[in-house]
Structures are given as C-alpha cells and as structure tokens.
C-alpha cells in the first residue's frame, strides 16, 4: 500500500510516499513509523507523532479502522531527540539520594561546625532516603510506561523539581544546626516523631500497592489501558498521588520546616493537575467508569 506522509512543519523531505507491505485493514501505525524511520533514520519511531489531517493522533488500530486509505495523507511531526522515561525517572530520583547524605554527613563542611542530629533530623533523613530508594526500585521493577520516551530537553526541567526542591532546599534547611539536638526548634516528643513516621510508612506502602495495581493492568510490552479497581481506587482515580501527598504531609508535620511545605505544595499542585487530566481521560475513554470517584482527594476533588 502506498502511504503519503505530509508535514505541518516546513521541510524539503515532505511530503513523501512510502511503500508499506499490506492493506489498510492490516497496516498499523507502528508499520508506518517503522517505514518512515527506515527512509529517514533520524526520525526513529519514538521521535515521531503521526496524526490525521484533523490532528487526531493515530492509535494502535488498523488504518482502515481510523478512516485512512491510499488517498488519505498522514501528518508527521518531529518530536525532537528523545530519552527513555525510565532513564528520566532514575535521574530525577537519584538527585535527592546523592544530595541528602552530603548535607546530613558533611555538616562541618556545609554549616561550619559538627552537629549532633536531633531525633527529628534522623527520622527525616531516613524517611527521605527510603522514599526515593523506593521510587528508584519502582522505576526499575514495577512501572510499565504508556509512553516509552520524552523530549530530551525535558529531563532538565523535570530533574530541577527533585534536585532543588526536595534535594538542596529540603536538605539544607532540615539538617541545619537550628534543628540540631538540644535546640528548641529541633525538639520533638516521641509521639510526634513516631506518629509522623507511622503515617508516612502507611502512606508509602499504600502508594506502592496502587503502583502494583496499575502495573498489573498492563501486560508487558503493551500500552493497554483499563479501569483500575481495588485498594484506594474505590474513591479516587489517582490514589497513588493522594498517598504521596499524605507521605510528604507527614514529613511537613514532623519537620515544621517551610522548605518541606514548599516542596509539598508544589508537588501536590502538579500531581493534582495530572490527576484531573487522567480522571477526565478515564471518563472519556470508558463509558462505564465509576461515577463516585474524584480525581485525587476522596470526596473533595
């Protein structure tokens, strides 16, 4: 079958006609992407966005199921150099894992004097380290991504959030001498410390359970989407975000540091935006999607 690839961007390479084995009823978007990459190796499949004339992104259905035949042009957009989502996540979460030990152990170098850490500082350090170690392990062994890559330049923007807000910002202010052992600001009773750790641990385990539920919805090597059910999903579409918010709120309550609140506010705001978008997509894609669910916060939003 002959397929015409046009471009909305100015390019001397387009339009181009490709010979793709098969018919409109058997050819899928992956076949088109492979054929285009074979002709122009620079445009490997993850770098391509293929759409119809009315800008609808082509799905995994056959061309005929999407109303495309030999007379219908397919529009191409170059997404630019790409990087794998798994790699991006490893870089993002790796920042705090490097930064927090530096501020925690090199207090004399950073603050000018050795510090005996208060129980609050010790608990916060291990909570933060375990949180991001969990995220790294989930990236390697749990997550299955619906999109394999993202634009390379985005890795700097995404990493800045974790490296600066939950890295340098949180570490510098929480492990400083003003919260050290023997200070009024660093004093916490046992109920305060252990209560915060208990809530944090529950939220982290709950977050992990929701990630496992989402993983089990998608067979390996596919982009299949389905309605999630089970723990957390009875009330909200994105309980993983809600439990993450609870975990960081426990850190805020334990530290009482403005730096923790700043990170939590920014992170929660971003997660809420993502949750609303995913909630709308669920309702649009699945006609039988449960109506009682909210986006992220049970019964509220």
TrEMBL record:
Family matches, as Pfam families: Steroid_dh (PF02544)
PANTHER family cross-referenced by the UniProt entry: 3-OXO-5-ALPHA-STEROID 4-DEHYDROGENASE (PTHR10556), VERY-LONG-CHAIN ENOYL-COA REDUCTASE (PTHR10556:SF28)
Family: Belongs to the steroid 5-alpha reductase family.
EC number(s) on file: 1.3.1.93
TM regions (residue ranges): 245-274
Top EC group: oxidoreductase
Protein name: very-long-chain enoyl-CoA reductase
Intracellular or extracellular location(s): Endoplasmic reticulum membrane
Function (record text): Catalyzes the last of the four reactions of the long-chain fatty acids elongation cycle. This endoplasmic reticulum-bound enzymatic process, allows the addition of 2 carbons to the chain of long- and very long-chain fatty acids/VLCFAs per cycle. This enzyme reduces the trans-2,3-enoyl-CoA fatty acid intermediate to an acyl-CoA that can be further elongated by entering a new cycle of elongation. Thereby, it participates in the production of VLCFAs of different chain lengths that are involved in multiple biological processes as precursors of membrane lipids and lipid mediators.
UniProt-recorded Gene Ontology molecular function terms: very-long-chain enoyl-CoA reductase activity
Enzymatic reactions: a very-long-chain 2,3-saturated fatty acyl-CoA + NADP(+) = a very-long-chain (2E)-enoyl-CoA + NADPH + H(+)
A single Gene Ontology CC term: endoplasmic reticulum membrane
Alphabetized UniProt keyword annotations: Endoplasmic reticulum, Fatty acid biosynthesis, Fatty acid metabolism, Lipid biosynthesis, Lipid metabolism, Membrane, NADP, Oxidoreductase, Transmembrane, Transmembrane helix
Pathway: Lipid metabolism; fatty acid biosynthesis
Membrane topology type: Multi-pass membrane protein
GO biological process, one term: very long-chain fatty acid biosynthetic process
Occurrences of domain 3-oxo-5-alpha-steroid 4-dehydrogenase C-terminal (ranges): 149-300
Organism (species): Thamnidium elegans
Primary location class: endoplasmic reticulum
InterPro entries cross-referenced by the UniProt entry: 3-oxo-5_a-steroid_4-DH_C (IPR001104), SRD5A/TECR (IPR039357)
